[in-house]
């Protein structure tokens, strides 16, 4: 609770959280709040400017841009977020197991990670799509398969760094089992690093999904997705540049909000990373005062 | 009575290779009575910390056993610890209150009762209730070690393993913490296993001093009889101190003079 308060006391973080919450809510409610069906073609309205009925105007097929942006939230944000969380969760579990169990298990899991990390991401994704067929679900699956190893690496290093710390040893003298150690001590200690990695991968995945949709491997044509909207708008980039604005703005907005939020999360989780507390000096240290006195006496 | 009998421990110098094992402890036997302070002194790498971890039950010895009043595997409630590195001995995200609550988890105490106990304990180690909401990075080294001592006391343990607990503090702060430990011992009748490489600190605090050399206890001496050491390594160690390498409070010199 205290952490949440600290997080919200940071204005940028609170704003980012609000923006993300609004985006997610809009995505979940898209079918009900979108003014028009996202794939309703009306060639009479081709490249129409904004109007009351079509607040963001219409695209090259006369479809409602606002409705398409709203419907694009699910594949662009919600599903990507779910995929990032899945790979972060799986990778963290593997990494922590490796860091805690050490020995053979560690060696085995880390070699597996090395193998995963040695494939270039796009090639692997294309291979998975080649085997399983096109579509968003397969892209996200390929993504989870690729990215967990990064999380595993980071989690393992963090666990190993903390495993011999005094507070972990003390908890062990109290009889804490491995799961308690992980849950109460190690996971919170590793969370800032994992949050940064997760927000970074969220941004790259969002862009990758858009890129693959642009290649025709992801979301299929009539469906709305921000990356695909961008690539469609690109065809009229010089005559109708304003078509790039809505999807482009949404991508930038979402990725920045996620990044700001993860930065703030890091600060809120780690009391040492700034915040209002650190400004307060440490007054009246008995030892420091005593040491100063001793020094005076010595002179 | 906390007793270790015939403890042996070795580590494989390369993981997975059975053949190359490096013996860290061999045939270590020691006893520490209720309320006694036993110093364990030795050079770096002599196996002091390993012995400490075994006494705490954090590691199993290859041979031998640690018993408490004759019972095996009773470490959990009876032995607690203060470690060397004050920067990592409290979870960086925990306040002092949260850190001190760790040993009280599972004990059903009311909020007011808990707060009273925490404040009382902090006062005993020379701090006060205003420290409860601080984070470890807002404490000085000496304050952090005091909090760790309070935390060890709150476990209700009968012995505390102090592994180089004062070694990383300034000399003046070291003296204060040593005095605090002495006072606490008087108050709680708690025993210490004081692991150090600093003979002077050991001579100040401990009733008996065990000298660990290359994984074996080569000699155990009572406080007033340090001069009677017979083992060559122990004599060497003492000679080093006499020749003035030891600095600071002069506890050892007082000990020598007392003997005449
Ligand atoms: N987990 C481990 N795996 C392999 N070797 C270890 C392990 N722990 C300790 N050792 C080895 O055991 C020996 C004794 O280590 P230990 O930490 O007990 O020494 P120490 O007396 O506490 O030294 P110091 O005064 O420097 O703290 C060292 O040679 C060390 O390399
Ligand atoms: Mg040591």
Automatic annotation (TrEMBL), chain A:
Q: What is its main location?
A: membrane
Record keywords, A-Z: Cell membrane, Membrane, Transmembrane, Transmembrane helix, Transport
* Domain ABC transmembrane type-1 residue range list: 73-262
**Location of this chain's protein in the cell:** Cell membrane
Q: Which CDD domains match?
A: TM_PBP2
Provide the transmembrane region boundaries. 12-34, 77-101, 122-145
GO cellular component terms, alphabetically, are:
plasma membrane
Extract one GO BP annotation from the record. transmembrane transport
- How is this protein situated with respect to the membrane? Multi-pass membrane protein
Among InterPro entries, the record links this protein to: BP-dependent_transpt_permease (IPR050366), MetI-like (IPR000515), MetI-like_sf (IPR035906), OppC_N (IPR025966), Staphylopine_ABC_permease (IPR053474)
Q: Which family does it belong to?
A: Belongs to the binding-protein-dependent transport system permease family.
Q: What is the official name of this protein in its record?
A: Nickel transport system permease protein NikC
| Origin species | Paenibacillus pasadenensis
Lineage at the top is: Bacteria, Bacillati, Bacillota, Bacilli, Bacillales
TrEMBL record, chain B:
- Gene Ontology BP terms: transmembrane transport
**InterPro entries, A to Z:** AAA+_ATPase (IPR003593), ABC_transp_ATP-bind (IPR050319), ABC_transporter-like_ATP-bd (IPR003439), ABC_transporter-like_CS (IPR017871), P-loop_NTPase (IPR027417)
Molecular function terms from GO? ATP binding; ATP hydrolysis activity
**Which controlled-vocabulary keywords does the entry list?**
ATP-binding, Nucleotide-binding, Transport
Entry keyword annotation includes Nucleotide-binding:
yes
**SUPFAM superfamilies xref list:** P-loop containing nucleoside triphosphate hydrolases
Question: In which organism is this protein found?
Answer: Paenibacillus pasadenensis
Note one Pfam family from the annotation: ABC_tran
Name under which the protein is recorded: Oligopeptide transport ATP-binding protein OppF
Q: Name all ABC transporter domain ranges.
A: 2-239
Q: Which family does the UniProt entry place this protein in?
A: Belongs to the ABC transporter superfamily.
Keyword match Transcription: no
